[in-house]
Amino acid sequence: KRNVLIIGAGGVAHVAAHKCAQNNISLGDIHVASRTLGKCKAIVDSIREKGSQRGSGLLKAHQLDALDVEATKALIRSTGSQIVINVGSPFLNMSVMTACIETGAAYLDTAIHEDPDQVCEPPPWYANHEWKRRDACRAAGATAILGVGFDPGVVNAYGRFAMDAYFDEVESIDIIDINAGSHGRYFATNFDPEINFREFTSNVWSWEGGQWKSSRMFEHRKDWDLPVVGRSTAYLTGHDELHSMSKNLGVPNIRFWMGFGDHYINVFTVLNSLGLLSEKPVRTAEGLEVVPLKLVKAVLPDPASLAPTYIGKTCIGDLVKGTKNCRPREVLVYNVCDHKDCYEEVGSQAISYTAGVPVVAAAMLIANGVWDVRQMVNVEELDPKPFISLMNRMGLVTRVRDEQGDRVLDPYKESP
Ligand code: NDP
């Protein structure tokens, strides 16, 4: 019994808490901590309402400012937590990681650290933050698995698995993220608007020909033929996973493509052109100081509130191209997730679900020792087989499409 502390009480934390509760026979007590106690209590209540908890461990809500390292260490100790799932805002990563290193708890997150006032950082982004603590992690013997949501996270494991199982040499990995669902609102983001917009307001980094290439958002678009969601337009976007996969996999071309509808692009372009997505404060004629991005966030729907009416599916995967036995080959490793099914199971939409399930699968692999590596790693540095196999049983089923057709991926059957 390891006991788990979940930090954050947003959409991803909601799913992570439900999934921990479903698996608390191996994970032990589950604690949820965030700035707003009421949000943590609401998660605990929803677990009770859904009857998600399988074992008899504690399920408890806590108030915590996770930027306060000493308070976070005290909570880790008082709850006896050996695993910390950080699914709070990415501004918290370095403080929570420090608390973990200093208490010896395992650390998991689903996004790269961000500083609130820095938008355009040089690549690789991990080197600006998390990787600086690699030696400290190793010295403390603390396990830290970075970016283990869906993207980053599962797509890193897909890239690694495809390389190992299907290719002698890989030329390119195109990660494609399509949300073909509809929430029925005029405009909303699927996760924290502040974080969502920050992804698109700076320049777009991609890994091309073994080096970083910069372009503008919405500069490059491409149509992809995908299972279930069909022909989909996606735009070259900068994203976390490129910043570790480029270093760890030795693949010359790694790109990230995200699907956007014309309506999203129009609204985004208007907001951005007016300066309403800026994180720099402005002063009104009345002397009020306002951060435009924070104001936009305040008037947009709370992403968690989209879940009850969300319909349709997401399709996220890696299209990998290379050679096997001197012949060109193309393989798509992917997952399809249904918004409504997620809502029925845990009360969330698919974007939160696809991020929350993997981080709990990783926690379970730490708890059973398989991924308890006692150092800092990105997901593609770990054996992807137990991870993919476990997620197949936890509600996120991986499929593969190649020249032999389209099938559920059993990683132990398909790897050499
Ligand atoms: P939300 O914005 O819904 O939730 C963030 C939570 O962080 C809130 O509950 C907030 O608490 C909490 N928080 C912020 N500051 C503090 C603090 N100082 N101390 C304690 N808690 C704090 O985000 P999501 O649930 O949508 O996303 C969570 C994480 O997952 C983000 O890092 C996001 O980038 C990442 N993500 C990753 C994906 C992937 O596939 N890899 C996909 C989607 C998201 P409160 O409300 O109480 O103030």
TrEMBL record:
<feature type="domain" description="Saccharopine dehydrogenase-like C-terminal">
    <location>
        <begin position="149"/>
        <end position="395"/>
    </location>
</feature>
<feature type="domain" description="Saccharopine dehydrogenase NADP binding">
    <location>
        <begin position="4"/>
        <end position="145"/>
    </location>
</feature>
<dbReference type="Pfam" id="PF16653">
    <property type="entry name" value="Sacchrp_dh_C"/>
</dbReference>
<dbReference type="Pfam" id="PF03435">
    <property type="entry name" value="Sacchrp_dh_NADP"/>
</dbReference>
<dbReference type="InterPro" id="IPR032095">
    <property type="entry name" value="Sacchrp_dh-like_C"/>
</dbReference>
<protein>
    <submittedName>
        <fullName>Saccharopine dehydrogenase-like NADP-dependent oxidoreductase</fullName>
    </submittedName>
</protein>
<dbReference type="InterPro" id="IPR005097">
    <property type="entry name" value="Sacchrp_dh_NADP-bd"/>
</dbReference>
<dbReference type="InterPro" id="IPR036291">
    <property type="entry name" value="NAD(P)-bd_dom_sf"/>
</dbReference>
